[in-house]
Amino acid sequence: MTEETREDTLDFILSYTRGAPEQLFSVADALDSKVVQIFAAASVVMGLAGVSEASVHGSKAALSFLWIALIAYSCTSLCAFVSMNLRRFRESLQANVLWRDYHDKDVSEIKHAIVDDIRTSFGENREIVDGKAEWAQRGLAAATIEVLAVVLMVISSRLV
Q: Which long-range contacts (CB under 8 A, 24 or more apart) does 26-31 make?
């Protein structure tokens, strides 16, 4: 393989991966929006459960379901908190670092450094985004349990 071919390959990889960090940041922002929506919906459900007649004058079964809903809401809150606080992304090389460390290097060396930095930061940031997604899924599961518990609370209070 000639030096020119490797330079072409390096140019291709650099242009192909240049937008990768921004794409991950967009995914993280979308996950944050979903987590806020899940938490907001869970809060509304918990609020409605709290003001319902079933929570005040309900049977023991209804009150048990209310406790289950409260525990599930607490889990949803915890999941939202953890997911929203996974934000320490590794940034790619910026102009100040490039100038400080590479101002006297060959352009090919700089390109290699940038591609390597994008590769490394993408891997680290991908783990953060995957963690956010995992906590968002847990929060959604907890919110689903909360909604089911509130529905069962209302139904059981009507059966008495």
A: 27/129, 28/87, 28/89, 28/128, 28/129, 28/132, 31/83, 31/129, 31/132, 31/133, 31/136
